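Discussion board: Methods & Data

I've been asked by a reviewer to show the raw model output for two of the constructs in my manuscript, not just the figures. I'm not sure how much to include, so I'm pasting the format here to get opinions. Each protein appears as its amino acid sequence followed by a line of discrete structure tokens. Is this the kind of thing reviewers expect to see in a supplement, or should I convert it first? Here is construct A:
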Amino acid sequence: MVPLTACQIRSPTGYRTLGEVNKEKKKNEQKERERRKGGKQKTMANSTWHYTTSLIILTTILVNSACLTVGCYSRIFSFGDSLTDTGNYLQMFGNESGNSAARLPYGETYFHRPTGRCSDGRLILDFIAQEFGLPFVPPYLGGKSREFFRHGANFAVAGATAMNHSIFKKMGVPVNTRGGFLDVQVEWFKKLLSMLCPKSDCREIMENALFLVGEMGANDYGTLFTAKVPFTEIKEIVSGVVSTIASAIKNLINLGAKTLVIPGLFPLGCCPAFLTHFQTKRVEDYDSTTGCLMWLNEFSEYHDQLLSVELDKLRNLYRNVSIVYANYYRPYISIMQSPTQHGIKETVVACCGGGGPYNFASSQDCGDDGSRLCQEPSEYVSWDGRHLTDAVYKIMAKSVISNLYFESHFTMSCSMRQQLKASY
């Protein structure tokens, strides 16, 4: 697939207005009320069937109780940027933050309202929580009580970098400081631990929790690319980004973490934002099968290679800890290469954005007046040019969860429980 030309921009009739989105929201609310009303009118026969089925399931669980004594994860703690943020940026700056995720159409597909998530619905983190029967991981800045964080906390902030902002300032590169950086999130976690277990060593919490550290690095590189730093210098920075991530992992392990998932980068060359920024007439710069920028995808792979090497070193250092690499690149590229197998029709054009060949414009965010909104987000890979749709995050999450089951000893005890869940 070659890059789209200006004459291939779809007509406005293929998009929705924000007024239509609000009408859809009201329809969804009415359907939910009707569904709840219908649920109250179940017959006695149905009730009896469910009662009998519940007894069978309960008996099965009791018989297999020896396999379930360890149980699944009791908490999830996550760190990262806008790919993982469930509302921290919104908590920091409110609805007037300028963050488009604070308004519709963000959140329209699953939550039917904006939640601070940079998607039309759920994120990979949300699907992981659902897999292990946990509530959605709340933003750290959204609560103050131990009960609020009973099942974990999310420290990710949209716009966060891996590296300390002082490094960018030394390079003379302007950086958006609002999102903070990874070390800040680790410090927040330490503060939370002191509240969760003030009179104990927190061992039980740490050993039974799942840690998701990342994705991190995309904002570091995006900042440098925007500042037009020479590519050779940006490539030299990758080792610094990776070592920063490794330092955070060590910090968490020293605090007692036993199971950590560390994601790599998405293929940056497939993102409408980068495709727009680096648009060129050189056909040879693009992958003919995906329409992605090859040199930028090779850069993503380079980051992932260095990260994988660093994780191997950490595994040798901490042999009693499960350090699971989550390859975001491979499933993303798989979708780009065979979109129809996943029900995808648009791979490099954003569902919601400011127009142009990729429906992305840095001067006009998704949800701004005049922005274009697609009819069916589930048919798109990209939601707003920088982030993915609920449908694609779901596909990505399946790959991460599969890897987690395969590589983590602790998760093996969850396998039987997931099979039981699937039976009812």
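Construct B, same format:
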Amino acid sequence: MKIALGAASLALALGAMATTVAPATAAEATGTKSAGSSELKTADVSFRTSDGLTLGGRIFEPANATGRLPGLLLVHGSGQGNKWSELQMEAEEFAKQGMVVLAPDKRSVGYSKMKRDYSQLADDALKAFAVLRDRPEVDPAKAGVWGLSEGGWVAPIAVTRTSDIKFLITVGGPGLEPLRSQAWNMANKVDRAGIEGSVRTLLNESFYRLGADAGLFPEAHYDPAPTLKKIHQPVLALWGTEDNQIPPAESAEIFRKTFPGSVTVRFFPHAPHALWAAGREKAEELVPGYAETVGSWVRDVTGGHVPASSADPLPAQPTRSVPLPESAWWEGWQAQLIVLVLLLVAFATYPVAALVRRRRGGDGGSWSNRVLATSGLVGVPLFVYADVSMIGSANGHGIDLGPLIAGRPILWLVVQLLAFTTLISTAVSATRWRTARLREWMLIAGGLLFIPWALYWGQLLP
């Protein structure tokens, strides 16, 4: 079962982890290239992480600027081994606002979808920031960090570790723990798909909690609030009102209440999570006004005019996130694995014993016992398969579970039909418990154990 859970969690998790091996070294420029615009010039750089990885990146800056300029390091959102080019649009647009911008590569070694370490990613960001700050065209007293999505968890950690970072910008910054945010993300997907009933709870709550308990969801219960409370540098926090990956209104509420210093909260109407005009995979430009807002705010902050805290009105957020507490012992993956094994053994013992009896000339058992054994043996593995396949069908765009009947996927309705068949046949078989033999006792016990298990997982609920 843990292998199956791992496969499902691979489609859900966000993150990365690696061990410390060697100290960082200074980065060096490797060349100068055109950014495809006469307004900008670029230079390739490299830097070493604390565990000895060499990562690349690209510097973007105004072509005809004079004097030292503000610097801005970009911190990626989730993903393994993201290249600097994934942030090229932001880097170019921010550089046109009069900044020297570093878009770095993100680590791939030691980074997987089931493991991540925000502290290590923050350390990577600090190594890249040192490269930016040491550039001769950057004013080291005017250098800051920008973080997108997962970078909204990572960048604040980096900010708390050095006074060299003078300001922080977040886009789609999460104010809640990753597990809760991801469950809200899934809730949006199933709601857009029209999925209703107990399968909705299974997909956006129960399975996430089990995956986190099994250690398959990275940094599941990381609380960003203690880190945010330590940041006294000015903060610009931006969200799109149509963000369906991070709860924008809830995150903004937390940012406003938690940051002790100047915090400016802005929302862009009808804009998605990354503030690309039509979504990151289709758009070729940022949301109108986004780059200008960043540029104007950075000029004010680095010019000594730190704004007083302010916030746009919170957008309507149709669905509120739900806290997902850690699993009780009986909900944990070990207990669930034991129950799964017991159910399979109980349901499999009866037909094996019945086959032996028939070969010896005995009867094959009552119809209710045969139905109970069959529905249990088919239904339990089918439930596991259904969970994995349904979770695995989710992607960045949504979730597609095929045709729905009354808001329920057909596969889930088959699971429920088998569960109710198991329930009824258990009740019938249990009426003959006084005359039951050992193999029948084991079968009835399996059916009785199945009932609370199936209720917990929603198989016997509407």
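Answer (T.O., handling editor elsewhere):
This is acceptable in a supplement if you add a one-line summary per construct. For B, something like: Residues 2-177+222-311 form a domain with the Rossmann fold fold (CATH 3.40.50.1820).
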